[in-house]
Amino acid sequence: MTSARALRPVVDRMAALTGVLRARERAMCRGLTLLTYHRVLPDHFRRGSLFPSLVTPLSLFREEVKHLASACRVVPVGQGIAALAERGMHRPPLVGLTFDDGYADGFACAAPVLEEHGVRGTFFVTTGPVGTGAPLWFDAAASAWAGLDWRDVHAAVARCTNAAAVPAAASSSPAGGVGFLKTLTADQRRQLLAELGGAPERVSVPFDRAMTPREIADLARRGHEIGSHSVTHPLLPCATEAEVAEELSASRRHLAGWIGAPPEGFCYPNGDHDERIIAATRRAGYAYACTTLPGRNLASQDPFRLLRIDMNPRRVTRGDGFDRLAMRAEISLLHEALR
Ligand SMILES: [Zn+2]
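The joint structure predicted for all components is written out below.
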């Protein structure tokens, strides 16, 4: 346990006793608080995940949604932005739950819990793998990367890219390897993964696949918001103008075909964006876009730079259990202020 994590319960308790936490919660009423989730999986599936910080165990998620539904007005992002335009205080505070990537567990695990509490979420779908039954490329790459011989990796990188060598960080872990792969073009990445014999065509673990078109349409019909997360989940600032336009417009077209109308929202893959990407997102017809930068969105926030709080399970638990005080501190940005 890090010292910061060890101290957190003390800090949270002090903030509750001194009224600091209540003041921060009142401040939430002036804006739209967006929370980022990736996977919500039955508890036993979390073990063995190569990206555990991205997995919220289902039992924890139930507790989080129960708290949010009782203390906040939980709305899809598009509705939250519309509500934010009516300036003033929003009581209870506006909160939106977002789910990145479009995994099948969004449909199977997260949505039913939201609906049990009468609330709806926003699901940002990477459209390329939808309906293929294949894993998202970074999951396939991470599991392949974990078992590779480094001499093979370096030789393959030299053949497929202009990089003289694999950066040290990429060699340290599957997550580092995926970070390196994200900096390549889609063609380079495909070629490299093919050379390394990495990407399986089918998944063996339930939910380690994208949602199907029917699941996406069903979520929309039930009142959830569907947004785009690109076609292939590239680092957009590294892509050419034509590639960026295609990622933005083709994913929008795919989703429109499945849900009957083009989506309003976009979520920058990895959160990576710059002025060029923001301009392209506007041109493609989106009304807003989410980043991974932390913070609360006030009425003055640029809708193409929406801030979100990453819901890492470690920050809202004590031991293995849900810590309501920590949850309150996390979504009111008390923890962020102390980082
Ligand atoms: Zn993503």
